[in-house]
Amino acid sequence: MSIPDAMPLPGVGEELKQAKEIEDAEKYSFMATVTKAPKKQIQFADDMQEFTKFPTKTGRRSLSRSISQSSTDSYSSAASYTDSSDDEVSPREKQQTNSKGSSNFCVKNIKQAEFGRREIEIAEQDMSALISLRKRAQGEKPLAGAKIVGCTHITAQTAVLIETLCALGAQCRWSACNIYSTQNEVAAALAEAGVAVFAWKGESEDDFWWCIDRCVNMDGWQANMILDDGGDLTHWVYKKYPNVFKKIRGIVEESVTGVHRLYQLSKAGKLCVPAMNVNDSVTKQKFDNLYCCRESILDGLKRTTDVMFGGKQVVVCGYGEVGKGCCAALKALGAIVYITEIDPICALQACMDGFRVVKLNEVIRQVDVVITCTGNKNVVTREHLDRMKNSCIVCNMGHSNTEIDVTSLRTPELTWERVRSQVDHVIWPDGKRVVLLAEGRLLNLSCSTVPTFVLSITATTQALALIELYNAPEGRYKQDVYLLPKKMDEYVASLHLPSFDAHLTELTDDQAKYLGLNKNGPFKPNYYRY
Amino acid sequence: MSVQVVSAAAAAKVPNVELKDLSPSEAEPQLGLSTTAVGAMPPPAGGGDPEAPAPAAERPPVPGPGSGPAVALSPAAGKVPQASAMKRSDPHHQHQRHRDGGEALVSPDGTVTEAPRTVKKQIQFADQKQEFNKRPTKIGRRSLSRSISQSSTDSYSSAASYTDSSDDETSPRDKQQKNSKGSSDFCVKNIKQAEFGRREIEIAEQEMPALMALRKRAQGEKPLAGAKIVGCTHITAQTAILDDGGDLTHWIYKKYPNMFKKIKGIVEESVTGVHRLYQLSKAGKLCVPAMNVNDSVTKQKFDNLYCCRESILDGLKRTTDMMFGGKQVVVCGYGEVGKGCCAALKAMGSIVYVTEIDPICALQACMDGFRLVKLNEVIRQVDIVITCTGNKNVVTREHLDRMKNSCIVCNMGHSNTEIDVASLRTPELTWERVRSQVDHVIWPDGKRIILLAEGRLLNLSCSTVPTFVLSITATTQALALIELYNAPEGRYKQDVYLLPKKMDEYVASLHLPTFDAHLTELTDEQAKYLGLNKNGPFKPNYYRY
Q1: Which of A26-30, A225-229, B137-141, B279-283 has the lowest mean pLDDT?
Q2: B543, A57: Cβ pair inside 8 Å?
Q3: Of A222, A71, A233, which Cα lies nearest the Cα of A152?
Q4: In the prediction, which pLDDT does B528 show?
Q5: Residue B271 covered by a domain
Q6: What is the domain-level CATH number for residue B381?
Q7: Which GO CC terms are listed, alphabetically (chain B) (predicted)?
C-alpha cells in the first residue's frame, strides 16, 4: 500500500510503508501472501535492512492486531460469515442507516450488526480489564469531551476498546489501518451502536484513504485525540489537515513502525503535539512476546504436526523473550532443548536456566525440531537444511520470514509436497524429508491463535494512554514521544489481576514511608528490568 | 600508592548508618567512632573477615606470575570492547546501607552477631533506614560480593580455621614485617600465613575462570600498564582491587584532594558507595569519572536471581533438614530474589504462594503459575514463610501468632527488617536455640515457630555465596578499570557512569567457557541486516533481558 500522491514527510519514506507491511505481515500471515505482490518478494530482505537498525528483540512484535487473522485461518471456528460476497456494490455507493436513523458511517452491511454484537460480547468475556475500567470510570468520565479519531484493525477486540472509550465519555470516529483485517459484522455492530466507523474488508487503496479522510474531515467535529496503529492516520492529518493539530492533545501509537515514524518526526523537529509510544510498555511487551509465545509454540507445533515433545531434541535459535518462552514450554514437556545465541548475556542466562548453548551446526544432525526466534536473517541456511536428519521439523517464531532461508529450498532437485495446510514436506533426492511449517513465516500467527487476553492488555494500555494524555495538566507533555508512565503500566497489570483471582498486597503507611514510595505506585524506577 | 592511605581507610570503615552524610567535615567523628568499634571487636573469626582489624593493604606481593590485579589482554583478545558507558540520569536508587547490616559475623563459637559497627546503633536502625530508602527497592539492593568472607567463616565452611590465629595481640601497625623479597611495603596481621593464603587463592582461581582467562590473555597488551590502582575492598581470596563502600574515595577526598588530579577514574561496587558517588555528583563535587559496576546486568542477575535460587534450598536444608515436596510455602515479594526462590521451590515440588505490592510483578507471578495472595489469607496453612521484599515488618507479630505449629520463618531479602523479630521478645514467648542459626520460639500453648538466622539474611547466614558469583563481580570490576583507564580523553566526564553494555556483555562472554557454551557469531551479512556490530553491543540500553 502506498500513499496516493507520494508526498512523504521527512523521514517517512516508502521504506516505512514497507516496514509497516512487514509488521502487518508478521501479524497477518495470510496477508503476506495476499498483499505482497510476487515481484516485491525479491526485495523483501533488502527492504528489511532499512528497518532493523532499530531495536531488534524488543518492540519487534506486536500481536494485538492478529486476532482477526487468526479468526480467518483454517483453524478458526468463526471464519464464515464475514466472507459474504453477497454484494459487489462498494460500500461507498450504498445508502445505509442504522436503527436509530443515522447514516454517519460506512460499512459493508449494516444488517450484520447482530452477528457482530455477538462477536463483541464473546470478546468482552476475556477483556474484563476494559469492562472493569468502564465500571470504575463510569462516574468521572475521564474522556468527557474527548473527540478521538482512530485508525486500527477493526475486530471484536478493538470494538470493546472503542465502546469503552465511548463509555468513558469520548466521541469516536474510526477507520481501519489495514485493508484486509476488518471484521465486517463487527464494523456493522459498531455503526449500529452509533460509532462513526468507516471500514470494510477488502478496501481498495483509494477506499483506504477515503475512509481515513471521512474520519478526520467532518463539519462541526474536530478531533482532539488520535489513536493510530501504523502512523497512516497521523501522516494523513499532517499532510492534509495540519491545522487539526492545533486542537490535538496527543497521539497514541501502537505499532513499531508508527512509533519509529513518530521518533523521526520528533527528531526532525516536526512533531507538534505530544505522542505516546504504547508499544514498549512492560506489560504489553511481556505478553506479546514471552507469555504468548510460550503457549503458541506448543499449540502451533501440535496443530501442524501432532508431534510429541517428550524426549525430543529441539534447538531454539535465540534466547530473547520469545526464545525464553519457547524453551520454558518445551522443557516443561520433557524436550531436550539446545540454544544458540549471539549475545553473551542472553547466552549466560540460557546456561543458568539449564540449557546447553551450542552453535547450530554442532547439533543440526541430531535434532528433531529447529525453531528460530532471533529477528535475524538466514539463521537456518541451505547448508543446515541439507544436514538435518530425516523428518526434522523446521519453523520460525521470530521475525517475518527471513530467518529460514526458504528461497534456497526452491531448487529443482528438491520436491515440495504440501501435506496439510501450513505444512510442507521438502524431499531430498535421497528421500530425506524436512518438515517446513508455514513456509518459514511466523508459526504462532499462521498455525496458532493470539489469545484475547493478550489483546486485552494492548487495548487497556491504549485506553489508559489516551486518558493520561487527555487529562495531563498543561505542560506535562511537550512535543515529544513518551513512554507510557510506569504508574499506568502498573495499572494495566492491576486491572488484569482479578482474572487470576489474584490478591495484591497493599503497603501500610509505615511501610510506604520506609520504602519512600507512594502507596499506589509507581513501585519501581524506570530502568527496572522485571 | 600510599599504603597508609589504604590501610587507614580500611580501618575506618565508618558505621554505615552514617554514610548518608558525605560532607567531609563530618567524617572525622565517624572515623573515630568506628576505629573504636573495630578495636573493641573480638578476635577475627576467619581469614576473610572484612572487619578484621588487620589493616587492608593492597594484597601482599606474592611470588609467581600473574599476581596482582593487573590484567591485560593479548591482541588475540582483540574483542576487548571499547564502548561508551551509558550515563545514568537516574541516580542510584537503592542505597543499601543495610546490606552490611544483613551481613552477620560468626564468631568462633558459632553464634552470630551483627557486624560490630552497627551494634551500638541497632536501636536507631529502622528509623535511620528511612533516610535511605526513598529509592526503589528491588534492584541494586543486594550485593553479595563481599559476603564470601562471612560464608567462609561461618560454621559450615571448611576453610575457616587457620587464619584464626589469635597468637598475637600486637597491632599489625606496631609490627615490623618483611616478605621473602625483603619488602616491608605492606601491613598485615601475619606475613607467615602467606602460604595458607596462597592455597585459598588457588582454590578461588579454580572457580574464577573468567579472570584467569583475562590473565592468560595478559601476555601482550597489558591494558593496565602504568595504572596505579589503590583499592579498598574485602580482602578475600577473590578480591584484589578497587573501592567497595566508598570509604576509600571518601578518605582521599578528605585528606588528599590533590590526588584526584591524577586519578583517571573511580570504580565503585557497592550500593552504598554508588549512592555516595551520586550524591557527590549531584553536589557538583565529583571531580573525576566514576563507574557504577553494581548495576550491570550480569552482576545483578547473579547477585539476585541465580544466587538466591540456589541458596534458598541450601539455607533451608542446612538449618532444618526439611523436605520440600508438597510443602506449602509463601514467598513475600516477586522481584529477582523472589523469582529465584519460587523457581527453586516449585522445582522441588512445593506449593508456592506469592504476595506482591507491585501489580506488574504480581501479574508475572500469575503467569508463572503462582497463586497471588495476601499473607493473612494463607498464613494459617503454610509450612514456610520466606520474605524477599526489601520492606519492613512484612511478617508481623500478628502473622506469627497465627502461624501453625513448626512453621519455618526466614528472610532472603533485606537486612533484618522484614520479619518483626523484636515483637517476639516478649515474656510469654520462650526462645530456644536448637542449633546454630535456628531458634524455636515457643508460644504459651506449646506452638513453635522456627525462626532462621534471627530474621537476618538466610543466604548469608546459613548458606554460601558461590565463588562463581564473585567471579562475575570481580571480572566486572577489572573490565571497568580497563575501560576507565584506557578511555580516550573526554569520553567520561565528571559523572557517574554505568558499565558500558559492551563490557557487560564481555563479562558474560568470559564466563561462557565454564559452561562449555558455544556462542554463535554473526555473519557479516547478518550483522549488516541487524544494523549491529559483530562484536556487540547487541542490545539497546533499555533491553530488559
Answers
A1: B137-141
A2: yes
A3: A233
A4: 93
A5: yes
A6: 3.40.50.720
A7: cytosol; neuron projection
Cell numbers placing B387? 520474605
**How many CB atoms are located within 10 Å of the residue A422 CB?**
23
* Cβ–Cβ contact B518 with A under 8 A: yes
Say which of A58, A497, A507 has its CB closest to residue B543: A58
Contact B545 A45 (CB under 8 A): no
Q: Distance from B47 to chain A by nearest Cα, in Å?
A: 30
CA distance B300 to B144: 10
Contact between residue A316 and residue A371 where contact means Cβ atoms under 8 Å apart: yes
Please indicate, yes or no, if residue B62 is contained in any of the structural domains: no
Q: How far apart are CA A238 and CA A212, in angstroms?
A: 13
Cell of B412: 532472603
Determine contact: A354 vs chain B, CB below 8 A. no
Q: Residue A205 has what pLDDT?
A: 93
Residues from chain B that touch A57, judged by Cβ atoms under 8 A, are 539, 543
Residue B243 reports pLDDT greater than 80: no
Look at B372 and A497 and tell me if their CB atoms are within 8 Å: yes
User: How far, in Å, CA of A184 to CA of B41, rounded?
Assistant: 80
> Are residues B388 and B367 part of one domain?
yes
A45 within domain boundaries? no
> How large is the average pLDDT for residues B216-222?
77
Amino acid letter, A317: C
What is residue A396's predicted lDDT score, i.e. its pLDDT? 96
Taking the Cβ of residue A361 and every Cβ of chain B, the question of whether any pair is shorter than 8 Å is answered with no
- Strand B290-292's sheet: what is its strand order? B266-268, B290-292, B496-498
Q: Is the peptide bond before A522 cis (omega within 30 degrees of 0)?
A: yes
Count of helices and strands (H, E) across chain B: 20, 13
Kindly state whether B521 is in contact with chain A, defined as any CB-CB distance less than 8 angstroms.
yes
Supply the range of the domain harboring residue B478: 203-295+467-530
B112: which 3 cell numbers?
Answer: 552470630
Task: Examine residue A233 and state whether it is found in any structural domain, yes or no.
Answer: yes
Q: How far is A261 from chain B (nearest CA, A)?
A: 18
CA angle B365, B371, B376 (to 5 degrees): 115
Paired with A437 in beta bridges are A423
Phi, psi dihedrals of residue A38, rounded to the nearest 5°? -55, -35
- The pLDDT tens digits for B442-470 are 999 999 999 999 999 998 888 878 888 88
Task: Name the residue facing B136 among A53, A358, A524 (closest C-beta).
Answer: A524
**Regarding predicted confidence, which is higher, A41 or A428?**
A428
DSSP for B175-230, written as a single string = -----TTS------S-GGGHHHHHHHHHHHHHH-HHHHHHHHGGGT--TTTT----
What ipTM was predicted for this assembly?
Answer: 0.78
Query: pTM of the entire structure?
Result: 0.75
- B437, B451 in Cβ contact below 8 A? no
Looking up residue B526, the CATH number of its domain turns out to be 3.40.50.1480
Amino acid at B361: C
157-196 in chain B: CB under 8 A from chain A: none
* pLDDT tens digit sequence for B301-357: 998 999 999 999 999 999 999 999 999 999 999 999 999 999 999 999 999 999 999
Instruction: Identify which has the larger pLDDT, A15 or B133.
Output: A15
- Measure in Å the smallest separation between the Cα of B450 and chain A Cα atoms: 24
Question: Read out DSSP for A162-198?
Answer: HHHHHHTT-EEEEEESSSS---HHHHHHHHHTT-EEE
Q: Structural domain tally of chain B?
A: 2
Structural contact between residues A373 and A61, judged by C-beta atoms closer than 8 angstroms: no
A340 and A229 within one domain = no
* Whether residue A415 is found in the same domain as residue A466: no
Judged on CB neighbours under 10 Å (0-12, 13-18, 19+), B262 is exposed
What is the rounded CA–CA span in Å between residue B54 and residue A397? 58
Instruction: Please give the grid coordinates belonging to residue B408.
Output: 519455618
Q: Hey, what's the cell of B529? A: 541486516
